Amino acid sequence: MRQASVYLPTVFHIEPRITIVHKVTGISRRILSYTYFQLHGRSASGGAMKKSTVAITRNVTAFKETILFTICYQTAESLINDDEAQKVIVAFDAFKKLTPDSKLDFSGAWVVADDFRNKKITLIRCTKCQAAVLLNARLDPVHHCMYCKTPYKQHAALYSSR
Ligand SMILES: [Zn+2]
User: Fold this and answer.
1) C-alpha 54 to ligand 1 mean position (Å)
2) What is the 97 CA–ligand 1 centroid distance (Å)?
3) How far does residue 113's CA lie from ligand 1's centre (Å)?
4) How far apart are CA 99 and CA 68, in angstroms?
5) What gap in Å lies between CA 68 and CA 54, rounded to an integer?
6) Contact criterion met (CB below 8 Å) for 145 and 124
7) 75-130: per-residue pLDDT in tens?
8) Cα within 13 Å of Cα(1), Cβ side
9) Which end of the chain is more exposed for a tag (fewer CB within 10 A), N or C?
10) Model's pTM, two decimal places?
11) Measured in angstroms, how far is the CA atom of residue 147 from the centroid of ligand 1?
12) b vs e for 33-52, b when ≥16 Cβ sit within 10 Å of the residue's Cβ?
């Protein structure tokens, strides 16, 4: 089990849901809820967590934010030699510094990072304009580069290397 003291200050600072912290640290939900309440003076947000990236990227703004977060996560993955949770935290911190007004929250970022790690979504460079293209992150079977509109088949992600 990870030491709670390592996680709590950072994790609670960005307000993820109790579920995630519980999963990562193994600390009981009751204690986590209590600690959260002590720190913030209110209860942690409840509700069901989003289960896949596709559920998060329903509109274009959310999709762009997801691409940006994925880039942050990919960078964190290559730079940090720590456990997965720490990578998500660092990536989310960087993401929030870049886009303070973004709607993607920590639990959404957690789901995106999970999908990326499990290769359910893939980040490639557009062959024409070099922009970042996130494949398999939306329901449409064909994805167009956000900038130059070059089409990419979503399932191409299965064959591309990362
Ligand atoms: Zn392009």
Assistant:
1) 21
2) 25
3) 23
4) 9
5) 15
6) no
7) 999 998 878 888 998 999 999 999 999 999 888 999 999 999 999 999 999 999 99
8) 10
9) N
10) 0.73
11) 5
12) bebbeeeeeeebeeeeeeee
pLDDT digits (tens, 9 = 90+) for 66-90: 999 999 999 999 998 878 888 998 9
For residue 12, the model assigns a pLDDT of: 55
Query: Distance, CA 154 to ligand 1 centroid (Å)?
Result: 15
The alpha carbon of 103 and the centre of ligand 1 are apart by a number of angstroms equal to 25
β partners of residue 71: none
Question: Rounded to an integer, what distance in angstroms lies between the CA atom of residue 96 and that of residue 111?
Answer: 16
- State in Å: Cα 132 to ligand 1 middle: 8
